[in-house]
Amino acid sequence: MSAQNWFTVDRKGLAGIARRHGVGRLVLEPIQNAWDEDVNQVSVTLEPVPNKHLAKLVVTDNSPDGFRDLADAYTLYKESYKLDDPSKRGRFNMGEKLLLSIAKEASIKSTTGTILFSEKGRRHSSKATVKGSVLTALISMTRDEISEALDLAKSLIPPHGVTTVVNGHTLEGRTPFASATATLPTEIRGEEGGFRRTRRQTTVNVYRPVGGEVPSLYEMGIPVDTVEMPYHVEVMQKVPLSMDRTSVGQGFLNTLEARVAEISATELTREEAQGGWLGTALEKMEDSEAVREVLKKRVGKAVTFNPSSPESNKRAIDAGYAVIHGRQFSKAAWETIRSANALVPSSSKFDDGRVHFSPDGYSPTLADESNPSVQKLRAYAEKFISVVAKSGAHLEIQNERRAKYAGHCGGNRVTLNIARFSYKTQQSVDELLIHECAHLKVSDHLTSAFYDECCRLGARIRNVEATL
User: Fold this and answer.
1) pLDDT by residue (tens digit) across 249-293?
2) In angstroms, rounded to a whole number, what is the distance separating the alpha carbons of residues 423 and 379?
3) Which of 25, 201, 325, 344 is deepest in the core (most CB within 10 A)?
4) Termini Cα distance of the chain
5) Do 3-170 and 372-463 come out as alike in CATH topology?
6) 268, 277, 285, 263: which is closest to 335 by C-alpha?
7) Which CATH superfamily, name and number, covers 372-463?
8) Residue 172 DSSP code
9) pTM of the predicted model, to two decimals?
10) In whole angstroms, what is the distance from residue 240 CA to residue 248 CA?
11) Could you give the C-alpha distances from 119 to 101, 103, 114, 116, in angstroms and in order?
């Protein structure tokens, strides 16, 4: 028995597989085969046969070479000449076979002759075209399947310079709103036949869908899968697909989402930037500028939540910033965000309400307590701490121009720095003492508790008879 006779294929069984893939999609097979040739015209007609569950499909092209090998039409998995070229759509040499498996009769007429398929079998004819090929098939299709097939055909993105007509309707070329070169996984001929995966630079075009179209991944103009992105994304090389060419691996889609996010970052609308796909895309984005642009569109003015600086978080919110918590992005996305310096902690932009001492470690200069004005300040301030604040806190008076604070409170100590406030003015002294003594009970400025404590101390000043 020769190797050629090892296998036979049951056409009925193959037809069952073809229908599971979707009859409408099979109509795209001869179109994409034509596009892979040196053509500038492709014509498609698909019309119902009156009073029958049949459709007549005719696909014509003007390739000078025609159908290169008519045996390709009936030989499953024969190695395609397109295996070596990632910029060609062909793969398994299976598309025509799936289409023919659901046909009642068909013919392929080309420059090398004609092959006819009927219920009696397959036969060859010497009749040939001068150039190009004509595929004609009577296909078992319902009216809904015909409609689906035509919708799919009209959603194609024709190659530049190739006029493609579907039932008299010339497909319009599309202009991407974003386009760039990216390195993506693809498939090429393996050393022992079949495919092997590799990575290769290619062009990625991004289009906004029109007329209610479902966002899809296109392989060189042919829709192959739906995507979570709000765009049509066209990859101009072979996309790693399952054998039935109807599904794409999640790993590839995640990588593609990252590249699309980088390509379209400046064109994203705020609404588009809210999509869940961008959260995943951030995990693999490499362009820091694009990461910052995406974050700006997605969250607007924003800082990250700092658990050790509650006042900074509150001041950020009050200033109209979004405060981003850790749970809002994955660990991998946060690594990308930090690497791009796309978000900074709230304390980097907003005061945390704390006194920040000079890093050089100088010892603050104490006030000269032989000065009568300083003596009056101490007497009054200690009375205030004792009577108004009802505290035994220690009072320290400084005269330190290098410091930026007028006063601070820490532990059981109240510090006043006369170099930074009008310590001889009653109102100025009372304002500072109310503020600092409120910290003896409440640390956070931006709470109702601090507000209430300031009000309580202000009201209790009446209990102090002494003045400066």
Assistant:
1) 899 999 999 999 999 999 999 999 999 999 999 999 999 999 999
2) 13
3) 25
4) 118
5) no
6) 285
7) Metalloproteases ("zincins"), catalytic domain (3.30.2010.10)
8) P
9) 0.76
10) 6
11) 11, 10, 17, 10
Q: Check if the beta carbon of residue 184 is closer than 8 Å to that of residue 86.
A: no
The full set of domain ranges for the chain reads 3-170, 178-274, 301-353, 372-463
CB half-sphere exposure, 232, CA atoms < 13 A: 25
* Sequence letter at residue 134: V
Classified as helix, coil or strand, 161 is coil
For residue 466, pLDDT beyond 80? no
CA distances from 241 to 235, 252, 310 (A): 13, 10, 50
Kindly calculate the radius of gyration of the chain based on its CA atoms and give it in whole angstroms: 38
Is residue 55 within 8 Å of 141, Cβ to Cβ? yes
Per-residue HEC secondary structure of 199-235 comes to EEEEEEEEECCCCCCCCEEEECCEEEEECCCCCEEEE
Tokens standing for residue 321:
């910033």
Q: How far is it, in rounded angstroms, from Cα 97 to Cα 152?
A: 20
Structure tokens at 218: 């296109």
Q: What is the pLDDT of residue 1?
A: 43
d(CA 425, CA 242): 82
Q: Report the candidate in 342, 232, 239, 201 with the shortest Cα–Cα distance to residue 282.
A: 342
**Torsion region of 303: left, alpha or beta (phi above 0 gives left; psi -120 to 50 gives alpha):** beta
Q: What does the alpha-carbon distance between residue 301 and residue 296 come to, in Å, rounded to a whole number?
A: 7
Neighbours of 332 (CB within 10 A): 12
Close Cβ partners of 79 (under 8 Å, ≥ 6 residues apart): 93, 193
Q: What is the DSSP string of 419-455?
A: GGS-TT-HHHHHHHHHHHHHTTT---TTSHHHHHHHH
Model confidence over 377-397: pLDDT tens digits? 999 999 999 999 999 999 999
Bridge partners of residue 206, in order along the sequence: 178, 233
What distance in Å separates the CA atoms of residue 272 and residue 449, rounded to the nearest whole number? 42
Identify how many contiguous H helices and E strands the chain contains and give both numbers.
14, 18
Q: What class, spelled out in words, does domain 3-170 have in CATH? A: alpha beta
Under DSSP, the state recorded for 415 is: E
